[in-house]
């Protein structure tokens, strides 16, 4: 598990390889990641948007931006957490993801970024 804390917000990431399949006559490698966002600060916060940089060993980097996470903009009071799962497809058995969440602190009304630690995506059969 990979973890990082930014301004009292702890991000934990766990990944798994889901298999190989064909999509549009091309081989794809499917990965799932589970993220837990834990508010360890003294203030209530809300996740408003996300930014991802997806690296694939055989393809150009992909940038993904959007509101919330899987259709939600969770509000986290101190001590609360939000967990969600999502996934990505790569054209190779190796890659990585990194990014950040744009959040707002309800006490100060200030917006801030929470960094998502870089995590690797690798198919077990391709490892030495």
From TrEMBL:
Pfam entry (one): DUF525
Top-level taxon in the UniProt lineage: Bacteria
Transmembrane annotation, as ranges: none
Residue span(s) of domain ApaG: 3-128
Stored PROSITE patterns: APAG (PS51087)
NCBIfam families registered for this protein in UniProt: PRK05461.1 (NF003967)
PANTHER family named in the record: OS05G0170800 PROTEIN (PTHR47191)
Protein name (Swiss-Prot/TrEMBL): Co2+/Mg2+ efflux protein ApaG
Encoding gene, per UniProt annotation: apaG
């Amino acid at each position: 598990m990979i973890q990082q804390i930014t301004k009292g917000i702890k991000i934990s990431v766990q990944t798994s390889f889901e298999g190989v399949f064909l999509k549009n006559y091309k081989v794809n490698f499917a990965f799932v990641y589970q993220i837990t966002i834990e508010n360890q600060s003294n203030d209530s916060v809300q996740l408003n948007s996300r930014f991802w940089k997806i690296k694939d060993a055989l393809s150009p980097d992909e940038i993904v931006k959007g509101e919330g996470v899987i259709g939600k903009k969770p509000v986290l009071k101190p001590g609360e957490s939000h967990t969600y799962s999502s996934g990505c497809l790569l054209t190779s058995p190796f890659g990585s993801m990194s990014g950040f969440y744009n959040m707002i602190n309800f006490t100060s009304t200030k917006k801030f970024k929470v960094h998502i630690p870089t995590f690797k995506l690798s198919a077990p059969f391709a490892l030495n």
